[in-house]
Amino acid sequence: MTRIPLKLEEMVDGTTLRGRLEALAGDAGGTSQNRAAIVAALRETIKNGKAHAEQLLTEDGGGTACAQRISHLMDEVIRALYDFAATHIYPRINPSSGERMTLVAVGGYGRGTLAPGSDIDLLFLLPYKQTPWGEQIAEYILYVLWDLGLKVGHATRTVDECIRLSRSDMTIRTAILEARFIWGEEPLYDELMERFDREVVKDTGPEFIAAKLGERDERHRKWFETRYLVEPNVKDGKGGLRDLHTLFWIAKYFYRVRTGEELVRKGVFTRQEYRAFTKAEDFLWAVRCHLHFLTKKPEERLYFDVQRDIAERLGYVAHPGLSAVERFMKHYFLMAKTVGDLTRIFCSALEEEQDKHVEGFNRLFQSFSRRRRKLPGTSDFVIDNNRITIARDDVFEKDPVNLIRLFWFADRHGLEYHADALRLVTRSLQLVDRTLRRDKQANRLFLDLLTSHRNPELNLLRMNEAGLLGKFIPDFGKIVAMMQFNMYHHYTVDEHLLHCVGVLAAIEQGREATIHPMTTKLMPGMKAQRELLYVAVLLHDIAKGRPEDHSEAGAKIARRLCPIMGFSAGDTETIAWLIENHLVMSMTAQTRDLNDRKTIEDFAAVVQSVERLKLLAVLTVCDIRGVGPGVFNGWKGQLLRTLYYETELLLTGGFSETSRGERGVAGRIALTRALGDWPDAERDRVVAVHYDNYLMTVDLVDQLRHAAFIRDTDQAGRRLATMVNPRPVEGVTEITILAPDHPRLLSVIAGACAGAGANIVDAQIFTTVDGRALDTILITREFDLDQDEERRARRVGTLIEDVLSGKSWLPDMIEKRTKPKRGQKVFRITPHASLRNTLSNRFSVIEVEGLDRPGLLSEITGALSDLSLDIASAHITTFGEKVIDTFYVTDLTGQKIENPTRMEMILTRLREVLENGTRPAAARTSMPEKA
């Protein structure tokens, strides 16, 4: 591997720096004014040094070299500062043996690498107890470093204290493990390291290893156990720098080495694997240094709003189907995967080495308890301590199908994987060729693994981590570590697909009945189609990152792969159809009016059969659930269930053909009967205020709640009221508004919700015969407990009432109370608006698509009111930073919009609002006075 020239001499000249400080000493070296001059000189040195380090990083791309240069810069600053303090501020006169001090770098600084914004960890090492002189020197150095704006971790200890504390405190032990001499009395440092190795490290390897791996596991749990989060933490996330550092800490401690090269000589890593180690470390350091330089702070997480700039700094350019930032992040995740591979290899070697150090009876007992056992059905694999491993080093070379068999046997017998086996898989990937990919037995074993009744996700994850899955299915290999630059998808494409398989398995095993009652009921009747369903789930996004539409391209890939897997022509076509249409059900449920019969008819025309409907319903649920935590909620589940059952009725001939008039009359009779215990006059008045559309659309249970709401509001003499109803099963909260109707009502309501931080997911809009509006909006749930959620919803309802009554000024409230989500501004979405008259028999359907921002729904609905359009229903869908909002509208006479000139005027205005925004006039409109 090419070594980057460090050019440390360019960073700072220690002699020149000392000369500058000498010139500032004068006769008043200790005055605060003089110290300010010292600080100014050092600040300039650090600023220039870091600027030069950034320039060199841009030129040579060496991340590790950059970190070493910055560490060297701080070394020289601290050395010069120490000499200045010891010579001019607190000079020693006839120093005693106790007036000695050593400056030692510990922690990350001890490794000789520093990111631009990293902390500086210093140990002031003393031979005996603290002396006044030592205390003064340490204090002076620290105050100057703090004045420089540096964050300094520090400790002042004797050698004895270091040894004693490191025995009981693993953090201190790790810090001293990485200790590096900076300046002062070097023999004191040598004494510390010699005693540390002899009195602390010796014979305590297993204890240290257990502690460090425990810390690593806890850190991974904090960062969600995956290295593929799309906003990863470069330092502490899985596959980040801290994982590499943990490996090296353990290596230095257990193998008693000081450099990575020694690990090669000891056989822990091959030369190629060590090159991969240094390459991953160099890349991660480059990313981290650029991140600190760009943000001008110790930022460790690659948020969306910096990813594009980091990609540009690192020189990535766009390729067809992938933007520059997506190519950069794919490279990042591949490096994180490399770190995982190295961890597995290292742990394997470590385990073997530990076994060698077990002595006497313990070794005999361990050998007995962990002896290898034969694995039924094969002589190529054995069981070692409940983990499957290879019987010989040539098992894969002798028969490449064994690469698949390893995972098949592990699944069949419920075994974990021995690191030796996975290590050999990674080293044998060159055996995966066209012959193996077309081997019938290999494909049968893979299909068994994919459709396992046990834990297919786990075994596919292990196969993917070892690099085999992407080799066996090359199209899958193209999406390994691929991210999608948006705020909707939480994982890389390959992780998403494997999570989806896990969701499907959980549904089939009945573990998701509460969350997915419909699909759980469907699965037992789909045994004949379960294999093709699993394949469709695994492949549905396999064509992401290509210039063409990924659904269509994915269907083509399925038509090529499925016959090789053993599927018939009919099953292959079903899988291809599912992949090509895997977004249709989700988009229909979330963006269309499911109470409009035309919606159901159009969807049924796409699906055509109940069998396909069932398969698509399950695939859709798995796809949404696999996007990330919290994306699927009860409201989306309810929408999917409604669409499924309405479409099933139509496909089986059970869809109601009753006329709208007859259904309206039937609805009025049903509500009248349900209110049978009300006084006749009161009941007849409340039933009479509704138009037929309301009675046909709203469930009877909700009609009863609304009737009581209207009665109570009228009895209280109120013109304006709100009612809240938490709906925990759907994961939403319903807010119903009764108010005098006017064109901008929905716009004002939407603006008030934006000001309250409430995210609207759907809206139903009804007008009563007495000129009032009965609007119901659904907002995403925020609290787990209904009591907390109800209190929050009442606050939102009160805010809506305040805005409608003119007590609050909407534009100011939105500006003060809302702010875009972090990273949202970095996304670019071309505004789009369409108006179609074929999606509904009664309404024109307007769909707008663009970048989300606070108050956008209020602006759009205000614009629709300005255009003299009456909104019958609104369907609000958010995909991360992107919104797709659908409005069913008519003109003020209740007719569709069919004039081409007017249609174009509407679309032009909506595109302007999406692009530039507007302060809606609705914000300046309070409720009209009663005539």
UniProtKB/TrEMBL annotation:
The family database entries (CDD domains) matched by this protein are listed as: ACT_ACR-UUR-like_2 (cd04899), ACT_UUR-like_1 (cd04900), HDc (cd00077), NT_GlnE_GlnD_like (cd05401)
Instruction: Describe how its activity is regulated.
Output: Uridylyltransferase (UTase) activity is inhibited by glutamine, while glutamine activates uridylyl-removing (UR) activity.
Q: Which residues form a coiled coil?
A: none
Output the superkingdom of the source species. Answer: Bacteria
Instruction: Report the SMART domains cross-referenced here.
Output: HDc
User: Known InterPro entries for this protein?
Assistant: ACT-like_dom_sf, ACT_dom, HD/PDEase_dom, HD_domain, NT_sf, PII_UdlTrfase/GS_AdlTrfase, Polymerase_NTP_transf_dom, UTase/UR
Q: For this UniProt record, give its keywords in alphabetical order, as a comma-separated list.
A: Hydrolase, Magnesium, Multifunctional enzyme, Nucleotidyltransferase, Repeat, Transferase
Start and end residues of each HD domain: 493-616
BP term (GO), one: regulation of nitrogen utilization
Cofactor(s) needed, names only, are: Mg(2+)
Q: Which reaction does it catalyse?
A: [protein-PII]-uridylyl-L-tyrosine + H2O = [protein-PII]-L-tyrosine + UMP + H(+); [protein-PII]-L-tyrosine + UTP = [protein-PII]-uridylyl-L-tyrosine + diphosphate
- The residues covered by the ACT domain are 734-815, 845-926
Print the domain comment field: Has four distinct domains: an N-terminal nucleotidyltransferase (NT) domain responsible for UTase activity, a central HD domain that encodes UR activity, and two C-terminal ACT domains that seem to have a role in glutamine sensing.
The task this protein performs is described as: Modifies, by uridylylation and deuridylylation, the PII regulatory proteins (GlnB and homologs), in response to the nitrogen status of the cell that GlnD senses through the glutamine level. Under low glutamine levels, catalyzes the conversion of the PII proteins and UTP to PII-UMP and PPi, while under higher glutamine levels, GlnD hydrolyzes PII-UMP to PII and UMP (deuridylylation). Thus, controls uridylylation state and activity of the PII proteins, and plays an important role in the regulation of nitrogen metabolism.
Q: Which family does it belong to?
A: Belongs to the GlnD family.
Name of the protein this chain belongs to: Bifunctional uridylyltransferase/uridylyl-removing enzyme
Corresponding gene? glnD
